[in-house]
Write a structure and sequence with these properties.
- The structure is a homodimer of 240-residue chains.
- Helices cover 77% and strands 0% of the residues of chain A.
- Chain A is mainly alpha-helical.
- The interface between A and B is large, with 48 and 48 residues.
- Chain A binds a DNA duplex (30 and 30 nucleotides) through helix 2 and helix 4.
- Chains A, B: InterPro entries: Homeodomain-like_sf (IPR009057), HTH-type_TetR-like_transc_reg (IPR050109), HTH_TetR (IPR001647).
- Chains A, B: Pfam families: TetR_N (PF00440).
- Chains A, B: It comes from Brevibacterium permense.
- Chains A, B: Keywords: DNA-binding, Transcription, Transcription regulation.
DNA sequence: CCTCAATATTGAGTGTACTCAGAATTGAGT
DNA sequence: ACTCAATTCTGAGTACACTCAATATTGAGG
């Protein structure tokens, strides 16, 4: 009998000891970080606390996330990924996904729908959200952030797609009417939608933080966000 | 003879010894910070270096700016203030300021004009600019930042004003045409302009940083910025 | 000129994000 | 089983932003 019967039960298709240990450690760190960030906030959580909670040396944490914000991005990536997998499930996508096919509702509504999970999440964890937003828009290029950016890019693509649909509806009259005025004629139509999508994301992140700081006069945040979306939809619709 | 003849030469209208010393110290710190940030960048400048360059104890620096970013904001406030004073000089304002009066040029051009100094500065000092943008949009509420935000608010007001002018031109036809489609009818007209202005600022900050990270495909940044402005102008013009 | 409260300055001390040289572990080759 | 190179882990060490108790400076009132 071989001492390596392990290898039989966990075949070569699965990971070796080392890889498995690594994955477990990664999972522990991820869970610890998630829990601590959630209950004590980003600033009040120290890397050594995370290490202790994950039962790992401090240096090890830095091997999985080179930076405290990177650790946060690792958590965000995991959560966002889980959310994506949960919502993009086949059964639902049949009803919702195809975009143009589901013509039901105003373009702005359909965009609001897209960003609504983001808005909800950011409101729930506003302290973390500030750090996340900061990092998304102005962070340095690092692997975990990159993965979060991929999520953001996908979101922006969906928004852009709906902006395009909206443009199709509103086209003709208005497009023609504003054409001369808009100056920059003859651009690829996708460009305006992409710009609009990025504007919406940046705007939403900024406005949410603004409201968090009480810098929104009387009105509700949703009203402001809605106005923002309406404006971009109108702008993208009118654009040539 | 009085020992206090000083008091005569520097009358009560001027500041006392203490205040003067304080102002001098402040000036030294400001100059040191400005120089060091400019030549070595934000991250690679340490507070102790600033203290040494200003010939002041480290703790003293923190009395004038509670935080390293606050120190940066102090510098930005000073520079922006100087710029404002230089450009808002009476002679020029007679030609440029009144807004609607100077109907020359497209609305988008007139807005691009407004943000052009900001864009130039951010390009020149892109590392610093990232930190500044970060702090403007997502920083914690602190005195120097507050003063910078005042500058930003003023800029946004100017942009909003020009957006309103533009709306006046394009009004009628389009406004009426899109009314039903835009959904949220009967809003105060200023709201859309204010939102648009904030969108432009946030968008410009984000896009500039995006370009800094090489995340802009082929095109020139100016093209992207221009498209952004066009989009908002169109959106604000069409908005009810 | 002296006193004293108010205020400003100082720099050694503290917490914490991050580094890195060595120790430990692994798996492939023999 | 043994060797060895590659990888992973570790935690004491470092740098630096920020604090704070002690000290120095000022100006007003006697």
């Amino acid at each position: 009998m071989e001492t390596r019967d392990d290898t039989e039960l966990a075949p070569s298709a699965t990971l070796g000891r080392r890889e498995r240990a690594k994955a477990e450690k990664r999972a522990r760190i991820l869970a610890a970080a998630r829990a601590l960030f959630e209950e004590r906030g980003f600033e009040r959580t120290s890397m050594s606390e995370v290490a202790r909670a994950a039962d790992v040396a401090e240096g090890t944490v830095f091997q999985y996330a080179a930076t405290k914000v990177e650790l946060l991005m690792m958590v965000v990536d995991a959560l966002w990924g889980a959310h994506e997998r949960a919502t993009t499930t086949p059964s639902l996508s049949a009803f919702v996904a195809p975009g143009a096919a589901t013509a039901g509702g105003e373009t702005a509504d359909r965009i609001a729908e897209l960003i609504s999970p983001l808005v909800t999440a950011m409101r729930r964890w506003s302290e973390l959200a500030t750090w996340v937003a900061r990092e998304i828009l102005f962070g340095a290029d690092m692997p975990h952030r990159r993965r979060v950016l991929d999520h953001v890019d996908r979101l922006e693509e969906q928004i852009a797609a709906r902006l395009q649909d909206g443009r199709a509806d509103a086209s003709g009259a208005i497009g023609a009417a504003r054409d001369g005025a808009t100056g920059t004629a003859g651009e690829e139509p996708g460009a305006a939608a992409a710009t609009g999508a990025r504007l919406i994301v940046a705007g939403v992140l900024a406005e949410l933080n603004r409201s968090r700081q009480g810098r929104i006069d009387g009105e509700d945040v949703d009203v402001v966000l809605r106005r923002l979306i309406d404006l971009v939809v109108a702008g993208a619709g009118a654009a040539r």
